[in-house]
Specification:
The complex is a heterodimer.
Chain A lengths: L1 H28 L6 H4 L7 H10 L6 H12 L15 H5 L10 H29 L4 H15 L2 H15 L18 H38 L3 H8 L4 H14 L2 H14 L2 H6 L5 H10 L3 H29 L1 H5 L1
Helix pairs in contact in A: 1-15, 6-7, 6-9, 6-12, 7-9, 8-9, 9-11, 10-11, 12-15, 14-15
Chain B lengths: L16 H20 L1 H4 L22 E6 L14 H10 L4 E3 L5 E3 L2 E6 L5 E6 L13 H12 L9 H4 L1 E8 L2 E6 L6 H7 L5 H4 L19 E7 L3 E6 L12 E6 L3 H10 L4 E3 L2 H7 L3 H6 E3 L2 E2 L2 E7 L9 H10 L2 H8 L4 E3 L22 H10 L12 E2 L2 E2 L1 E7 L3 H16 L3 E7 L1 H9 L6 E7 L7 H4 L17 H12 L3 H18 L2 E9 L1 E4 L33
The chains are: A mainly alpha, B alpha+beta.
Amino acid sequence: MVLYLAKRLLEMIPTLLGITLISFFIIHLAPGKPTDILTELNPKITPEARERLEKIYGLDKPVIVQYGLWLKRIVRLDFGESFSTDRRPVMEKIWDRKQPLLDRRLFITFMLNLLSMVIIFLVAIPIGITSATHQNTLYDRITTTGVFIGFAMPSFWLALLLMMLFGVYLDLLPISGLKSMNYDSLSVAGRIWDRLSHLILPVFVSSFGGLAGLSRYMRSNMLEVIRQDYVTVARAKGLPENEVIYRHAFRNALLPIITLLGLSVPGLIGGSVIFENIFGIPGMGQLFYMSVMTRDYTMIMGILTIGAILTLLGNLLADLGYMLADPRIRTK
Amino acid sequence: MEKMSSFGKMPSFSLPFTMGKYRTVFFLALFLIIALSPSCKDRPKAVNSTGLENSTGEPAYGDSLIEGTIGEPSILIPMLAGDSASHSVAGLIFNGLVKYDTDLSVIGDLAESWDISPDGLVITFHLRKGVKWADGVEFTADDVMFGYKTIIDEKTPTAYSEDFRQVKKAEVLDRHTFRVTYEKPFAPALTSWGNLAILPGHLLEGKDITKSDLGRNPVGMGPYRLRKWAAGQELVLDSYHDYFEGRPYIDHYIYRVIPDSATMFLELQAGGIDMMGLTPIQYTKQTNTVFFRKNFQKFRYPTFAYTHMAFNLRHPFFKDKRVRQAIGYAIDKSEIVDVVLFGLGTPATGPYVPNTWPYNPDVKKYEYNPEKAKQLLKEAGWEDTDGDGILDKDGNPFKFTILTNMGNTLRKNTATIIQWRLEKIGIKVDIRALEWSAFINNFIDKKRFEAVLLGWSIGLDPDQYDIWHSSKTKEKEFNFISYSNPEVDELLEKGRRTFDIEERKKAYFRIQEILADELPYIFLYVPDATPIVHARFKGIKPSPIGISYNLPKWYVPEKLQRHRMEP
């Protein structure tokens, strides 16, 4: 077991190296430079000034040298300084220790995604199971249509409609942001409600869109499992239907969900650009989008590297989860 | 996590179409009823709406102004910043030596007065006395010297040093006198000292400016001070009670970051923000309701920018002046303004904004005249000889591509109208929208284009040497269309070498005449800025330079004040 773990972890190193190398070259291939924001279509800039700026950012060296320098820093876990005009350390922009925990970008995105993921699991799994047990009934059709509406509906459109309804016409919920203007003058209970009320619409919209995948997956797993012989045996023994489904079938149908869990680990910090922009949520998606648009190379590489590490770890965790849950895999 | 797509093992299933349709229709109907219901739309906001538009009331201290912004400032040291959000917030915190008055004349800011030597080479600034930085230290000529030295420092990553490199000598004569000497007379020199935001030398001396904390915790002496900056959310500024032009009436200025403009517009209706820039459709249609008329005031004035179509003058089609003029006659500028900008703009006739002093109103206008266009093309040898509806010359059909940048709907729509108009006189136009960086680096800089649709933001000083002078045609320079006219070169030189406004005016008027005749650009339109502000704010005086120049003088009468913040 330890040997297996060590082998898997060692395998991750070349993979990671390959990912960073390819990412580094691709983002440098894209036209444009981080200094463009200062120099482009700015009639006041001369070629000398442009060169000076590029030298300050180290962009005058060949790409492979730049990658080497970046790699040298990264092995010391130093993500470097952002190439945007503020020149702040990459890690500080992702996880600003000077800000309260609730205002740090990574934490905001993580919490939001965790919340909607929990809701998706809590809602989608029962929907999946019940629509499998009630296959082809009216209920099955209604839930199927419902989750597909969520899947197909553009999230920005739904978000705007809900904002109009609850924010402008009914005046019940805040429209955007994470807290109100008068947050600092609120009582503790008031602050908690203020935070929560700002989360209701974003979490609803993102969960609604994510129901389809998991519930359909669960439904098909369940359908497969309840046709198995051992379920027939359980029924033949005279067990109550509830026990057959939730005790015997359910556990086995849950197994593939482990893969999904593992794969959603990087998604927890990824954040969605459209979604964070529309709700004005200062999360990782926004940060990443901004860095791509301004060609903030160090920032992009920082986020990509963290994402790559989490994806690889998520895969490993999923495999380990299987080994723990399924004796058939463990013996292999 | 959004939208998982693990359909690997899914059994085949059939979508129950009938049910789905009804549910969708039901939801849609529900949303539409809510969204379109007129009683909802015009629902007045409960608070303080009585007599909002008419009551003036006495100026009073207090309340907050919340402005919505799409972009977040990056750094509040103006010489290091490249984005407009940074400059706009830093402008409330820092000052320059001079600034523009509402009629575009130059008035003192931190400088009380100044003398220019008769030969135009020496400017002596007499600084305000007794002005204090927010940390209590007195402002002196050393701060100006520090700012100058920092901006010309090789190690400072700034894009704005060029004007200051023209300075031959800078000296501090005494605590409140600062003198600069130039090699050659340089007309934009005086106003360039308004662009240099003076930094607190006593806090930065001997430190690396890029590593300084000042970019996020600025210490200035302008009307506002930064109190709090929540990344990605908001910047809260408090009024500086000791501001040298008097304490601003509005206590707090809050800059709220809302990256989506549709969301921002909803926030405006819900009372989450007090001020934002409107799009043409929001200005003309969506805010044209009782609710908005009662609760908001809208403003409209020309921006210092123009949109144009530029020809690559090295391209064989566009070398001939008559061809460019023909295209000028074939395009109806007022149609573009009406359709694309909903009328919120002015047709442009040259590279200056109407009603400013360098603007020459009497140049050739190119009223829409397709017959004249066809005739000019014929003179230039373009005729439809093969009857395919497209003009041709020596066997080459008149086909070209207009390049523009992606994501700018106004430009794309403008290009489409031009395409349609040119088709009518037998010119086939394709439109291609490119991502900004690719557009600039691979096409503009390499001169790989036939025509481009772009815009220029112009400074308040009329010097446009870098755009029109024939020496500025190298890669990455701004005369990318390769325009060259010895008379224009000479006039540009003259215009930047004299301080006499009448002399300069003569030079720039003549330049506009030449440009209107030669038409290297089709000058299309000057768009209007269309901000909206909540009606409780009084004392706003629209001017050619906009509305925010007198922000410290805006006020909310006591009984209309809405936000009271804990200190």
